[in-house]
Design a protein that fits this description.
nine-stranded antiparallel β-sheet, mainly beta
């Protein structure tokens, strides 16, 4: 059982690929991306900011290598905000399946947040579950996403509120294999900035932490199908 916690004060400011490469790998489809550690945090001084100002399909997945391959129970917790969100644009926490690069993550459409399975280019393959929630721009939210046995489950709430006691979204998925946690987004219809303020991972029954120091392990490099680093 291991937990990791990052509020991004662990790194100096600059490109994630330069100042945080010991923990993270950046995988992108499409040009004009920036993924940086910036001095705009609300929990600590720093945060991770993912930005793209060109309106066309493009994917950015930032994988937390330090957690490595997870074959058992795993949780990822993210505090984040969106500077813009287009209809159907995936965002926030994700679990990436190593065998084929498929992604378990979230998208938003007209007051509905959907937990879904996507291919490595963030094209939706399977809707898992959804909740009614209006995502406001430049407002911090939390997402907790996890696997327990063959159940994939998630919840999302406002930073100004309290974490729900139970999971909002869940379903059985026996196909979910070895995964690596991270964050990601797809920008389709509008320029968008995603800011990640807190990132936590918990394994083997440990909850992903929202505060405090985290553990560590040997970094692992993941190859995502169709995505080059």
């Amino acid at each position: 059982m291991t937990q990791w916690y990052r509020d991004f004060d662990e790194y100096s400011t600059g490109s994630v690929a330069s100042v945080a490469s010991a923990d993270w790998s950046v995988y992108a489809l499409g040009a004009n991306w920036t993924a940086e550690i910036v001095a705009s945090g609300t929990t600590g001084t720093n945060a991770m900011e993912v930005d793209r100002d060109v309106i066309e399909d493009a994917v950015n997945q930032i994988v937390f290598d330090t957690a490595g391959d997870q074959t058992g129970d795993v949780e990822v917790l993210v505090k984040f905000k969106m500077g813009g969100v287009g209809t159907g644009n995936p965002f926030g926490a994700m679990l990436v399946q190593e065998s084929d690069g498929s992604i378990y993550g979230f998208d938003y459409n007209s007051g509905t947040v959907t937990l879904a399975e996507y291919d490595s280019a963030f094209s939706k393959q399977n809707t898992i579950d959804s909740i009614s929630l209006t995502v406001s721009l430049n407002t911090y939210y939390w997402i907790r996403l996890g696997r327990s046995g063959t159940t994939i489950q998630a919840k999302m709430w406002l930073d100004s509120g309290s974490e729900p006691d139970s999971w909002d979204m869940s379903a059985t998925d026996t196909a979910l294999g070895t995964v690596t946690p991270g964050v990601g987004c797809l920008f389709r219809y509008s320029p968008v900035i995603m800011t990640v303020d807190v990132f936590g991972v918990g394994t083997s029954g440990d909850a992903a932490p929202s505060s405090g120091a985290g553990g560590g392990s040997t970094p692992h490099h993941l190859t995502l199908m169709g995505v080059g680093d």
